[in-house]
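## retry 2 of 3
previous attempt timed out at serialization; input unchanged, resubmitting
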Amino acid sequence: MKQFVIAISLSLFLTLSGSVMAAPTWSFDDPEEIVAWEALNQMEYSVEDGIFKTQSTGADPYFFPGGGWDLADWDPFSGAEYPAIYMRLKVNMTNDWQIYYITEENDAWGEEQRQNFTVEAADGFTDVVFLMEAGGWQEHTVTHFRMDPGTIEGVIAEIDYMSLEGPLAPVERTGKLVTLWGALK
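## retry succeeded, writing output
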């Protein structure tokens, strides 16, 4: 009976306070993770060994993490609660990246809801934080966003993870279960 009362109390609390949802995170450990992604533009892409690999084939490459123009496989989130996008990546050349987004309060895609970043070339993986300050991200509820990995042809990016919750612990991928388990512990 005690467990039943606790379960009802928790259910009532979540109903009254709004559901508790985790922000979207992509680890690319499974190639199926990007199958539902739509509107990948001017880029070749693949998922290999837990890395999302992109190569721009034009001046306007983009992808929608977890969806497309009007589709997201994650719930809207508070931009104030999640003001940054964390990534571990390496890129072959320094170039400008862009993040476009829409919110519950402004659902029109446009230049006013865009953040630009310069991503530096690196031989190895680097942790990058995109602090979203432009256009009201931190004042609104974000419903969709689009990542433009470069603004010219030939940008090769390898992305180990994307997260709104913070940096994920890097794992050395050797293919050996013992090594992987040791890294996770």
